[in-house]
């Protein structure tokens, strides 16, 4: 019988800011607004507002390219991934980003740049026609503001948990700031602020891995400690190798993600990586605004170099969480997923790994800078979404479908209003998530599956002149629908899904804990003297005598009752989880909290019991192993592995449908495909190119460095 | 309002230099204060005084950007 002692997570904020920290945060808000007001006079034409005048240097374009993606959800989320999956978390950058960014720079950028499109849906219009553009434009506009709202919600929640800030104040202050500076200066302001935010993110985050590695005793010592600690932290995958990039990808069992090399290369590297980096307009917009094609290509290569450095501030903190975060008793601190019932009651979550390290190492001023880095990351991501939304809405929805012939000035005004409306819709989405938080997961996956088919459609359009307008439209739409069907399939449980049996003792209930051999022995049983409890999926004799059909009861016990430590669910013995976040000790009368598993619970007469028997057919938060094996080739596939394989199949379906329909439908004449398709596009002569400005040379060097990194950490 | 020429614009690097130098000053100041008045609950690796040298590094970095990209009067 397993027994896990869980210490209560303090209800007080995890980080305490001083006056200097607050001064640093306030200064940041003042500076980003000042930049917005300063740049307003430079953003009066459509090109200025939506494309920053197409005058950005390679460095600004490259930094903005990376910064728009470096949101705090990204840094905290991927640190959490590294805590969960070990070194494999770095693949999001190594195999999942760098090759794709280089592909964008060398292969795709010339088409985007030469056709002078305002957006990726704009390219679809030129290449395939209005149908594909409308699907892409409308879905992109919707997704962008929803994702922006989702990240706003998540950020406000994080600031509330870490700093005790009011969720509503966090949402409104940060989003109004973004709305002001994007509406004033358009993309120019968004891009310039992203450059500022990039520096703050790095200066605010880099100290943690530096100090953490010193604290762990060096890199080698850290890796040894990780491999020892994961036996306690991740017992379900304790034999997996957490410290390798490729050595553990030979089979589904050898790594904590439950994936193999094929899924990693073709799912993450090809489908997700190329989809996200080459066709997500939020990213592409950052570099098509460069002053010439060479600057756009070099800016993208600079983005690849910077992206290759991001694991330093993202993956390493996640790994440090496995090595240097300790409980008060000196054992490794166990963090749990957000979906775990213990999350934020008795245990911190994976997403807390970065803030916990901040609290461990950063003193006055440094902590303020770290929090500013988080806020800056959030705002840069949101500004990216809002400016991309304003462009796509104005050019690909409003101008294309609603008001076709108006003045440039009118469209700039529309863009400014679209920025503000985009922020307001984001706020509405954030509030919707406050009440329906499970939508968050659905949204993220939906975006993920929208981008991959878009890449399939765009890349075939660029490289194959035979690809037809009808095929582009139907290939894109079919793959989106197929992706949604796959998602529904892996979350469906035709035989029913029963959540883990759980007992939650309500706050203020009076409880005694009986131990073997005095105060420090194993917990023998828990006695609930008075108060109320929630019981889920634990067989309960007093209930079964009441009714067999209903699945929820409320009753006051007339006699003492016992709840078992283990439950048989569909042939498996499953331990019962017990959570007591804020109960009163029957002996000392003090408040305390704890959590245990597989311990019998005695309920005294008079205790109120709310009993539920839950069985569901569709659960967005859980994956059905019997179904995932068809998508991800293994029942052991973890969520990330399922997502990667789903993306791969989505790309395959998109390309297959597009190719087949193209063979039976009429292509566009070649005269209409000039500057849009390989073989029909002439690269403009931009004058002599010194060797140190050659995009191909630098892309080659980055590729060599990438290969070297993969070999070193093999 | 007429669109102003981009070359008249104050370089973004200058803003960054000012901000980093200011932040560096605050962080280094707080770090030095803690040397003379150590806190009751010391953080991990307190003895390395990371605020002092990280703040100093930020000041140097910021000053470099301020000097290199300060707006020209012409």
Give a verbal description of the structure.
The complex is a heterodimer of chains A (714) and B (74). Chain A is built from 23 helices and 15 strands. Residues 1-12 of chain A have low confidence and may be disordered. In chain A, strands 1, 3, 4, 5, 6, 7, 8, 11, 12, 13 and 14 form an eleven-stranded mixed beta sheet that branches. In chain A, strands 2-15 form a two-stranded antiparallel sheet. Chain A has a two-stranded antiparallel ribbon with strand order 9-10. In chain A, 57% of the residues lie in helices and 10% in strands. Chain A has two domains: 6-318 and 331-494 and 635-712, Sodium/glucose cotransporter (Up-down Bundle), CATH 1.20.1730; 502-614, no CATH class. Chain A is α/β, with parallel strands linked by helices and 714 residues long. The model of chain B has no long low-confidence stretch (mean pLDDT 85). The longest helix of chain B is centred in the N-terminal third of the chain and has 25 residues, at 12-36. Chain B has 74 residues and is mainly alpha-helical. Chain B has a domain at 20-68. Chain B contains two helices and no strands. Chain A binds chain B through residues 18, 20, 23-24, 27-28, 31, 35, 38-39, 41-45, 48, 53, 55, 60, 192, 195-196, 199-200, 203, 207, 211, 214-215, 324, 360-366, 368-369, and chain B through 1-4, 6, 9-10, 12, 15-16, 19-20, 22-23, 26-31, 33-34, 39, 43-46, 48, 50-51, 54-55, 58.
Q: Outline of chain A, from the CA principal axes?
A: globular
From the alpha carbons, calculate the radius of gyration of chain A and give it in angstroms.
Answer: 27 Å
What is the assembly state of the chains in this entry? Answer: heterodimer
> Can you tell me the CATH architecture of the largest domain in chain A?
Up-down Bundle
């Amino acid at each position: 019988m397993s027994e896990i002692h869980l210490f209560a997570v303090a209800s007080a904020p995890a980080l305490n800011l001083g006056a200097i920290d607050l001064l640093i945060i306030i200064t940041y808000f003042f500076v980003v607004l000042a930049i917005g007001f300063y740049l307003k006079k430079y953003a009066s034409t459509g090109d200025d507002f939506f494309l920053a005048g197409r005058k950005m240097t390679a460095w600004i374009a490259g930094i903005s390219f990376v910064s728009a993606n470096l949101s705090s959800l990204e840094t905290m989320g991927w640190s959490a991934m590294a805590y969960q999956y070990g070194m494999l978390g770095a693949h999001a950058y190594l195999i999942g980003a760098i090759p794709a960014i280089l592909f964008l720079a060398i292969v795709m950028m010339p088409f985007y740049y030469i056709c002078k499109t305002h957006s990726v849906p704009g390219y679809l219009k030129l290449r395939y026609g209005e149908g594909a553009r409308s699907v892409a434009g409308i879905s992109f506009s919707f997704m962008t503001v929803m994702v922006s709202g989702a990240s706003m919600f998540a950020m406000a929640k994080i600031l509330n948990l870490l700093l005790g800030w009011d969720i509503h104040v966090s949402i409104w202050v940060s989003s109004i700031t973004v709305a002001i500076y994007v509406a004033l200066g358009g993309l120019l302001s968004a891009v310039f602020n992203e450059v500022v935010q990039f520096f703050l993110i790095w200066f605010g985050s880099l100290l943690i891995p530096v100090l953490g590695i010193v604290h762990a005793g060096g890199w080698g010592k850290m890796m040894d400690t990780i491999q020892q600690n994961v036996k306690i932290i991740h017992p379900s995958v304790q034999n997996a190798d957490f410290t390798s990039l490729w050595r553990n990808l030979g089979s589904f069992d050898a790594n904590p993600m439950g994936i193999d090399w094929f899924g990693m290369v073709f799912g993450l590297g090809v489908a997700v990586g190329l989809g996200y980096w080459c066709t997500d307009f939020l990213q592409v917009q950052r570099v098509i605004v460069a002053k010439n094609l060479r600057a756009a290509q070099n800016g993208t290569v600079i983005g690849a170099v910077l992206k290759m450095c991001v694991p330093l501030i993202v993956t390493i903190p996640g790994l440090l969480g496995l090595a240097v975060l300790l409980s008060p008793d000196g054992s490794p601190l166990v963090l749990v997923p957000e979906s775990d019932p213990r999350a934020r009651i008795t245990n911190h979550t994976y997403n807390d790994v970065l803030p916990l390290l901040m609290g461990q190492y950063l003193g006055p001023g440094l902590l303020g800078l770290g929090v500013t880095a988080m806020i800056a990351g959030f705002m840069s991501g949101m500004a990216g979404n809002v400016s991309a939304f304003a462009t796509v809405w104005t050019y690909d929805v409003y101008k294309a479908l609603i008001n076709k012939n108006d003045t440039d000035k009118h469209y700039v005004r529309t863009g400014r209003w679209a920025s503000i409306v985009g922020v307001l819709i984001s706020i509405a989405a954030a509030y919707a998530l406050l009440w329906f938080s499970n939508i968050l997961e659905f949204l993220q996956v939906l975006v993920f599956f929208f981008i991959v088919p878009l890449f399939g459609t765009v890349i075939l359009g660029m490289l194959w002149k035979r690809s037809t307008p009808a095929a582009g439209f139907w290939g894109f739409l079919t793959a989106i629908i197929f992706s949604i069907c796959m998602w529904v399939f892996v979350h469906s449980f035709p035989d029913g899904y029963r959540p883990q049996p759980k007992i939650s003792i309500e706050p203020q209930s009076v409880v005694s804990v009986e131990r073997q051999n005095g105060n420090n022995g194993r917990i023998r049983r828990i006695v609930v003297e008075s108060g109320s409890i929630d019981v889920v999926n634990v067989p309960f004799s007093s209930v079964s005598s009441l009714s067999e059909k209903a699945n929820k009861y409320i009753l006051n016990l007339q006699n003492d009752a016992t709840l078992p430590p283990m439950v048989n669910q569909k042939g498996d013995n499953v331990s019962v989880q017990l959570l007591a976040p804020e109960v009163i000790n029957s002996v000392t009368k003090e408040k305390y909290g704890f959590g245990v598993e597989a311990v019998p619970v005695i309920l005294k007469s008079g205790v109120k019991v709310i009993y539920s028997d839950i069985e569901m057919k569709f659960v967005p938060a859980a994956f059905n192993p019997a179904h995932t094996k068809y998508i991800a080739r293994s029942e052991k596939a973890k969520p990330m592995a399922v997502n990667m394989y789903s993306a791969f199949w989505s790309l395959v379906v998109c390309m297959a449908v597009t190719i087949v329909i193209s063979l039976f439908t009429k292509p566009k004449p070649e005269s209409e495909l000039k500057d849009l398709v390989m073989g029909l596009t002439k690269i403009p002569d931009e004058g002599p190119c010194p060797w140190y400005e050659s995009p191909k040379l630098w892309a080659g060097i980055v590729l060599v460095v990438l290969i070297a990194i993969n070999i070193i950490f093999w | 309002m007429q669109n102003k020429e981009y070359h008249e614009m104050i370089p973004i690097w200058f803003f960054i230099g000012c901000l980093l130098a200011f932040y560096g000053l605050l962080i280094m100041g707080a770090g030095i204060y803690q040397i003379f008045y150590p806190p009751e609950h010391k953080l991990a690796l307190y003895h390395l005084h990371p605020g002092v040298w990280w703040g100093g590094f930020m000041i140097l970095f910021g000053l470099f950007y301020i000097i290199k990209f300060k707006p020209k009067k012409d």
